[in-house]
Amino acid sequence: MSSLKESIQYLKGVGPKKASLLNNINIHTVEDILYYFPRDYEARKDLICLNKINKSGKYLIKVRINSNIEESKVRKGLKVYKCIGEDNTGKIRISFFNSPFIKNLFHIGREVYLYGEVKKSFSGLQITHPEYKFNETEYKNHIMPIYNLTRGLNQNDLSKLTYKVIQDHITIVDEYIPECIRNEYRICDIKYALKNIHFPQSIEKMKISKYRLVFEELLLLQLALFMVKNQIANEEGVSFKHKNEVDDFIKSLPFQLTGAQRNVVEEIKKDLECDKPMNRLVQGDVGSGKTVVALISLLEAVFNGYQGALMAPTEILAQQHYEGCIKLYEGLDVKVELLTGSTKAKKKEQILNDLKNGNVDIVIGTHSLIQDKVEFKNLALVITDEQHRFGVNQRNVFAKKGINPNILVMTATPIPRTLALILYGDLDVSIIDELPPGRKEIKTYGSTEKDKGKVYEFIKKEVEKGRQAYVVAPLVEESETLEINSATEIYENIKEHYFKDYNVGLVHGKMKNKDKEEIMNRFKNGEVHILVATTVIEVGVNVPNASIMVIENSERFGLAQLHQLRGRVGRGEYQSYCILINNGKSPVAKERVEIMTKTNDGFIIAEEDLKIRGPGEFFGTIQHGIPQLKMANLFRHMKILKLVQKKAEIIIKEDPVLKSEKYEGLKKKIINEFGKFIENISL
Ligand SMILES: Nc1ncnc2c1ncn2[C@@H]1O[C@H](COP(=O)(O)OP(=O)(O)OP(=O)(O)O)[C@@H](O)[C@H]1O
Description:
Keywords: ATP-binding, DNA damage, DNA recombination, DNA repair, DNA-binding, Helicase, Hydrolase, Isomerase, Nucleotide-binding. By secondary structure, the chain is α/β, with parallel strands linked by helices. Helix content is 40%, strand content 18%.
């Protein structure tokens, strides 16, 4: 009896060499082949007679071989095998590269179906390295799958193998979506879906199959996430008692909390009082005041006798949080330390000791906090800032340093609820949807290279009024070095030609931490008037006196990123401006500028970003720790995702661990597909 887990190596016609090629594209078992879906399809024309081919193009032909194979060596490593084929209307030259086995297959008189690019020239017809088949039934399908390949493997090989696997193994694929769900959502059964996703007899049938496979994949993922959430909810955690000292701290702040901040603080307080570990995501637009919410939460831990940790994505931000923390906690008996990659060895050792023996209450840092060496006495609250830079797994490594610690994740990247449920399905979500009072709308303008002189004049005027400006260098995704070069160029150019009488600073990712810190401090205290920066300043940097942001080559940034960058201004009482120097000609670049000039609302921008980028990477889902999806696309299939989420919620409410018989198949499949992922994200 064959099994879906059978290794492909033992399938007829595979062998170790082809198996290792297939392994390169993550195909190891029969099941993997069935679930290795085509990336596209090619609709094939009907069989054509040779004399009907009037111009070059892709054709399906049927010919008789009428010459022996002629082998010739073109150069080292390249041999060509040629022969002639004919039908009743004409002749065609056929050639293959590096395919010695052709000699055994193409004998004189044998009929063969060929599919490929036919060249028509004055010397006649020529087909090069075509697909070939000897059996007409294999060409019954005119819609042929196109798979992603790896070097050494061709479409012909893979589609042949898939065809054979479907023929031989489809009967042993068990249905795992219960009939009631299939009926409710009019979903076809799995055998039909697998057959027709690879070799559809019509576009309609392919669509029916695709719908099923998308639905299924999203359902499995959403159920997995809900199950994890339930599991966390059932774990024992540390429960805090709310302390009046925390209220006193809130009263001592230099500002009143906004209503939204108060609500979130209240939600967190409730979570912390409960004996289940908190697992909450706070989503707040740029500048909405998330940091203070983190600082309040950390105090709840400290006043209950526990330790807390706050992890930031960049050193600049960790440093800023540390400074803010020291300032706001002034007068409190709370020991805070900063631990980053560049903390000096001796200091580091001391902090590590103090964390272990409990002499430090709160540690703020970067990735260094998740290193093995860092041990805590009684870590009970972990706050990670900007979750999207970390991913679920890293968060969990960190979380494991405490006894089921409470987890708070902060993100400034607003995402629609549907996506939040998938990306953070294991978290509760709080939203800070109100900005501190007195903030003025950031006025945003699009500009071009040729008007840059005017833009710099405008900066000058603002600086003369006492404000400061950021000039962001173009993003160069492929190379940090190129990015730094262009930042340095801009820095030198504007320093020399436009702002001789002002202090211009430069900050980028490869600078020594000490230098970075120094320049940021000089910018914060107003000594540096204009700061040229790479995207290191993208997240979190808070200098309320800065009122202008110029983004060079804004077409290279995504909308969400532009919004983040723009959020570095408008953080104080002053009217702020953002100028996007757009040198891109594409309509998308123009559209982005238009959206940015129209709205300051991060939620609207996030939605627009989704629309523009469509299936593109709004966020890398891999970064989030979400397993890569084979068929579904979280953006393109938003409608199906909504349906699935409703259903998944109902299922989990009715049967939290899917123990009823009807869900047996689903559960098995979830463990099979997402077992590793579930293990990783369970705390
Ligand atoms: N309720 C409030 N009233 C007035 N100012 C506030 C309030 N809450 C926070 N602030 C101030 O607003 C500024 C932005 O706050 P914070 O840095 O916490 O924003 P954020 O949400 O972390 O933004 P980002 O995601 O851009 O980093 C800070 O200067 C902070 O002191």
